[in-house]
Specification:
Number of helices: 18
Bound molecules: 6-sulfanyluridine-5'-phosphate
CATH class of the largest domain: Alpha Beta
Pathway: Pyrimidine metabolism; UMP biosynthesis via de novo pathway; UMP from orotate: step 1/2; Pyrimidine metabolism; UMP biosynthesis via de novo pathway; UMP from orotate: step 2/2
Catalytic activity: orotidine 5'-phosphate + H(+) = UMP + CO2; orotidine 5'-phosphate + diphosphate = orotate + 5-phospho-alpha-D-ribose 1-diphosphate
Number of domains: 2
CATH topology of the largest domain: TIM Barrel
Largest sheet: 8 strands, parallel, barrel
CATH architecture of the largest domain: Alpha-Beta Barrel
Structural class: alpha/beta
Keywords: Decarboxylase, Glycosyltransferase, Lyase, Multifunctional enzyme, Pyrimidine biosynthesis, Transferase
Family: In the N-terminal section; belongs to the purine/pyrimidine phosphoribosyltransferase family.
Protein name: Uridine 5'-monophosphate synthase
Distance between the termini: 40 Å
Length: about 475
């Protein structure tokens, strides 16, 4: 069945009439002026348009031979469209809960389905493809396969390529160029206006790491090089790390969760040339003693890496002062970087800062975690970002898993470090979830990969570290291109 061109033209004219597609001078959230603005939320108020949209989207799928068992709309604008397609064609629908990012404790996907079925994703507007991916991932997590994505308008800013790189086929009823063609032909746009929209679209292409914008704003900033990020931070430790990564050409942090301090020191000497950070859990080592810090600092100077004691402080400010500065481990004396949960509130940062700032240390906040069922998401992640902004001198970044889904202005000079990395993906028996270095750096927008068992459990840890280093660095340089 071919798609009916007249029906498509009529739909374009109606979309223009109801101002779902507007031309003029629009200031986007980023401050960029755009000659085009697309807001498809309005179509719910025009039943004829909604019916036509759903009909055309179904037609394009059938014309392209897409096959699927059920369908799921990307919240929210595409939900009524998916509902219409479901009703008209007797195709079961599923719903993704946008609020529930914690797939472990609540159902992220509602509806009846069985693992192994193929689900169609329905979206109203695609810019970079990022919002589509946010729906594909929870569908995959519950065992549904996604092969096809249908969209009303494709802004032709890189979304199709991004989805294709995830083995997803994009079926667009209206590539933006088609909208322009019809509106020009029908006298709704001048040739000059068409040219200026085309120029704007060409100048605002999104890369594979860009965060999408459902509001139709092409406002994704280009990924900055590590050296440029060094200029954007007020924390000395972050500055040092950015510059170290740039000059040493590595974004690999090894999580050295070995059994003894002696093994750790040996591993640090062996892997030192490959890494930018050595991450420790000093309470894992029964032979920890007062020489630990100085030995490690010596190796850090020899091989040029930084030390990150992954202490995950989580107490009130007054208590963490002692835990960080003194006690058994005297962490602040030898660890350049440490981290904290934000669950106690910002007092924990005040406490740690009172010890670490004068020593030139940096703090990472746990904004997200790699483990299944983590509670660190949504409003919690946002709270971490807010707290970081209140302490730019001491907070140097985050432990995060998907910073590309955060608002772009949240990152800048802050370092994003991501654990749960293995070349083969997968997970462990206790809830750890792994992503590949390519995905973590490229798609998820992180800056540093944290790799533990993938390296220290390998038959040849130094060779494995070299392999992870290359994968992480290649993903970073590809993201800059
Ligand atoms: O969310 C997190 C945060 C951290 S710091 N998930 C994690 O796995 N980590 C740490 O990263 C964890 O404590 C361990 O040291 C490392 C991951 O190790 P792997 O062996 O699973 O690669």
């Amino acid at each position: 069945m071919a798609v009916n061109e007249e029906k498509i033209d009529a739909l374009i004219l109606r979309l223009h009439e109801i101002e779902a597609v507007k031309f003029g001078e629009f200031k986007l959230k980023s401050g960029i002026m755009s000659p085009i603005y697309i807001d498809l939320r309005v179509i719910v108020s025009y039943p004829d348009v909604l019916a036509s949209v759903a009909g055309c989207m179904w037609d394009v799928l059938k014309a392209n031979g897409a096959e699927f068992d059920n369908m799921c709309g990307v919240p929210y604008t595409a939900l009524p469209i998916a509902t219409c397609m479901s009703l008209n064609n007797d195709c079961p629908m599923l719903m993704r809960r946008k609020e529930v990012k914690d797939y472990g404790t609540k159902k992220a996907i509602e509806g009846a389905f069985t693992a192994g079925q193929t689900c169609l994703v329905v979206e109203d507007l695609v810019t970079s493809g990022a919002s589509v991916m946010e729906t594909v991932e929870p569908l995959n997590q519950v065992g549904l396969k996604v092969k096809d994505v249908v969209v009303l308008i494709d802004r032709e800013q890189g979304g199709e390529a991004r989805l294709a790189s995830n083995d997803l086929r994009l079926h667009a009823v209206l590539p933006l160029s088609r909208v322009l063609k019809t509106l020009e032909k029908e006298g709704k746009m001048s040739a000059d206006l068409v040219q200026s929209v085309k120029a704007f679209i060409a100048a605002n292409q999104t890369g594979p790491n860009a965060s999408g914008n459902e509001m139709g704003a092409a406002e994704t900033p280009k990924r900055l090089a590590y050296a440029a990020r060094a200029e954007l931070t007020a924390n000395q430790c972050a500055k040092d790390l950015w510059n170290l990564m740039e000059t040493k050409k590595t974004n690999l942090c090894v999580a050295a969760d070995v059994d003894t301090a002696a093994e750790l020191i040996e591993l640090a000497d062996k892997l030192g040339p490959e890494i930018c950070i050595l991450k420790t859990h000093c309470d894992l080592y029964p032979d920890f003693d007062d020489t630990f810090g100085s030995k490690l600092l010596e190796l850090a100077a020899k091989h040029k890496f930084m030390i990150f004691e992954d202490r995950k402080f989580a107490d009130i400010g007054n208590t963490v002062v002692g835990q960080y500065g003194s006690g058994v481990h005297k962490i602040a004396d030898w660890s350049h970087i440490t981290n904290a949960h934000i669950v106690p509130g910002s007092g924990i940062i005040d406490g740690l800062k009172s010890v670490g700032l004068a020593k030139g240390r940096g703090l990472l906040l746990l904004a997200e975690m790699s483990s299944k069922g983590t509670m660190a998401n949504g409003a919690y992640t946002e709270a971490a970002v807010k707290m970081a902004a209140e302490h730019p001198d001491f907070v140097m970044g985050f432990i995060s898993t998907r910073p590309s889904a955060w608002k772009a202005e949240w990152s800048k000079g802050l370092v994003q470090m991501t654990p749960g990395v293995q070349l083969g993906g997968g997970g462990d028996a206790m809830g750890q979830q792994y992503n590949t270095p390519e995905r973590v750096i490229g798609e998820c927008g992180s800056d540093v990969i944290i790799v533990g068992r993938g390296i220290y459990r390998a038959a040849d840890p130094a060779a494995a570290a070299a392999e992870y280093r290359k994968a992480g660095w290649d993903a970073y340089t590809a993201a800059l291109a």
